Fold:
Amino acid sequence: MKLLLVEDNAILAADLQSFLQENRFVTEHAATLAEAREKLNDYEYDLAIIDIGLPDGSGLELVADIRNQRLPIAILILTARDAVEDKVTGLESGADDYLTKPFHLAELNARIRSIIRRSRFDRSNMVEAGKISVDTLASEAWVGDKRLNLTRKEYDLLLYFMVNENRLLTRESIVEHLWGDHIDQADSFDFLYNHIKNLRKKIVQAGGGNPIRAMYAMGYKFIRTD
Amino acid sequence: MNNRHAFKLLSKTTLIYLVFTFFAFSASAVLLMRNTDRFIDKEIEGYFRYYEHRVQKLLRMDRQLQDIERHAFVVSIEATEPAEFVPVYRDTLILNAETEARQPYRIKTLVIREEDQAYLVSLRRNSEDFEKLKEMIFGALIQVFIGLALVIVLFNTLLSGHFFQPFNRILQQMKSYKVGTAASPQPVRTNTVEFIRMQQLFTRMVERIEGDYRNLKEYTEHMAHELQTPLTVMRSKMESLIADTQVMRRHHSAVKILSDEITHLSKLGTTLNLLTKIENQEFNRSERIVTQPVIERHVEAIHELVALKSLTIEADLDKDHTLVIDPFLLDIVLKNLLRNAISYGTPNGPIRIVTFADTLEVSNYGAPLSFPAEKLFERFSHHNGLRASLGLGLSLVKKVCEVSGIEIGYVYRDGQHVFSLSSV
Structure:
């Protein structure tokens, strides 16, 4: 799986690159539109992560280029602007998804995984971690051969944990992933606590042990149980 | 400004002009009447002289005075000091035997000496014609004054529309001017110096406001935009720290505080930016939206949250209820009203969302407000003391309503906080 990261901020680019490499993606970096175009000409990529605000133009031009050349590349846009127009034009111009800055790395990872699952490069719809497996096509979760009876949000929660295995997910990041801005942060932690309690109970009852651990009153980590 | 005693400029000038004309006319009337009187006096005096002369002549010739008895009445008197007898004038009415009408007369009484005999002579002259002349002049003056007053009023009324047209058009431009429309006002054609000056001033003012506004807008946009990248860097560094078990073991509480503050800051930036965009009317794709499916989508999105907080939510939706609003803004309003209801709702009863006629109501049970209701929609009121709440939700709702022409109301009734939106 090869990724092209187009981002002009050096620190952010370096961080993202090391994060993506940790997650077993081969990642190359371009800081400008020109550099990105060159790389796209010379190499093949499965996914491009493109920041809209680049020093020599808009990332949206690059999206248009890729789509006009019918390159088989999935696209995720990063936008610093929260403007709806940007999101709409981004998606209309052919991007597969967008992410508004500042974002959580776990969220970026979840989005990338989701794009990959949807794209034709990885035909597997299964996400697996130890005994637990999730079929993203059927939206079903299993512990061994026992099907878990999850609500929609519990399913989303489990999938988010599994694609970010062994990573501490802050409560903010989880809440944002599940509910967006439908909820005040102040209230959200109780909800999250209840959700996680219910999800844990269902996994334990199905014999999956307790893979979801609370960490430092900050968040939770999914650790596979065998 | 007190407008209770305000008049139109033109009515004011007309009134002043009328008063001035009235005084001018009165003065000239007095002058004219005095001149007329003088003329009449002179005429009558001439007449009297003539008859005085004739009486003297007839007396001298010892002739009968019968010929002139219609004009003069003569009696002989004994006067010791006739020289001291000053002629006396008086105006009186005398009955005309033929017409039986009283007629005005002027009478001059004097003493005439002929040889050693003194005579008291009373001369008289019918002054009816002169009185009539005076009345005519006076009448004519009044008629001219009334005519002039009418002309002034009529002229001002008819021409005010014409003369003040450029003024009114400039006023109209001022009234319809909205910050951020960028276009300079359309020039109004006029050759009135005052209006030209007013127009120049207005144009210059608009240009200045637009300039300031553009700068402010750019500044806000840049601020909001440029803040996001450093915040993203901070967050990604933060996440590297969080991923580091050793760091977390030793510094987790400091990391937590930093992480919370970064989250708060980025949310604040995003929301303030959104608020500014709404104020700038950047969301202007208003359309008539049937609210039922939209509300149902929102209720669906939060019903798990509601249940987790041991609350319930009831929706009683009129399928014909519509709102004219930008779809994105409607989402903001519903999201924030429902979020508010979930945050502050108590399990005494359900959160209700109801639509009927032109109204949409969102209500939740809870204790009465501990502060004035007007403060409810203010930014950063922080009456709840919850740090994680931005204190911007309801002010966002209010702002959206303002730009969308929707009236927002709040009441506390039957133990419930009720927010209502109605189309104006």
